[in-house]
DNA sequence: ATCCGGTAGTTGACATTTCTACTATGCTGG
DNA sequence: CCAGCATAGTAGAAATGTCAACTACCGGAT
């Protein structure tokens, strides 16, 4: 007789487990180190920095709140709070959306732009120091490509 | 004449930038998805789960607070808060360290162990679904090995 | 012995994030 | 038109994380 429907968990073998753990631990340490560098040298958290980067790349330094939330892979609520604080500090401005009465556009101010430019060199140096320069070129590519796959898979589902 | 000492930032080329961004975005989405699965199905956050895993692997289900903090790459303060909450829920116990008057040993209880065992299959399935099974075997290895290098570099300093 | 710099851990204030509920607007079918 | 469902964004409370003291203990040098 065949066994009944399999619901046994398929465990990870030792290699897989090690890879997963190295990933998790490395990711925590890396984002931590980069966040600390930014906070210390530029008074920005890593996600505030990311906000400014996205806005700086947008057509008129402007994005809808929901676009921002989607790009940062954050909840709308978190985005609202973050932007409210950044607005209080003068880095961004919000105004109602012309074409969609529900929408809110978020624009980076000159002060925000200046802060980003001031922060960028140190941040990039840290990304080099802790990531780019410790890996060989093929290693970095492999890392990036693997994560792109993971990212795409996660974006697909809801 | 030679230019004065170089302090120009060495920017990332487009490839490097893309890899770094894919990494960051993928890492956020991945840890997010895994955290949500754990919280929803087992009432544990990812870092609480990690605490239980480390304790389950320790000789007598026991680790010093500082060992725990080091292994999880967390501040001592955060570890104290987390463990206090977990102790209140009955998953761990703390008691003074015999040989070092400053130390505190943290031990996983039977309830903690049971909770971990209940949570593990679903968590492992999620790790497979979002990471292990979406990558080829060499891709996963490359990812793991690259992150091991990053991790080692970050552990060295400080 | 005791002074001193360093380590272990905790605490409480504060900041950020999450969760849930809520308002307002848009859109589609009858 | 308007009913009903979905989307955009916000708000406040609760949970979690960070930061800066602070206590207590260790261990070596004087």
TrEMBL record, chains A, B:
The record ties this protein, via SMART domains, to:
HTH_MARR
Q: Which InterPro entries match?
A: HTH_MarR-typ (IPR000835), MarR/SlyA-like (IPR039422), WH-like_DNA-bd_sf (IPR036388), WH_DNA-bd_sf (IPR036390)
The HTH marR-type domain, residue ranges: 20-152
Q: Which Pfam families match?
A: MarR_2 (PF12802)
**An example Gene Ontology biological process:** response to stress
One MF annotation (Gene Ontology) recorded for this entry = DNA-binding transcription factor activity
Under which name does UniProt file this protein? Answer: MarR family transcriptional regulator
């Amino acid at each position: 007789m065949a066994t009944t429907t399999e619901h046994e968990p398929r465990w990870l073998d030792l290699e897989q487990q090690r890879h997963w753990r190295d990933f998790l631990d490395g990711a925590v340490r890396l984002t931590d180190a980069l966040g600390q560098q930014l906070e210390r040298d530029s008074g920005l958290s890593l996600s505030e920095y990311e906000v400014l980067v996205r806005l700086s790349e947008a057509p008129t330094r402007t994005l809808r709140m929901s676009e921002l939330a989607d790009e940062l892979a954050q909840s709308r609520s978190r985005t609202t709070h973050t932007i409210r604080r950044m607005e209080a500090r003068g880095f961004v401005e919000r105004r109602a959306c012309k074409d969609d009465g529900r929408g809110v556009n978020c624009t980076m101010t000159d002060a925000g732009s200046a802060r980003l430019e001031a922060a960028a060199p140190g941040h990039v140096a840290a990304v080099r120091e802790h990531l780019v320069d410790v890996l060989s070129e093929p290693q970095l590519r492999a890392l990036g490509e693997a994560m792109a796959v993971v990212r795409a898979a996660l974006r697909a589902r809801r």
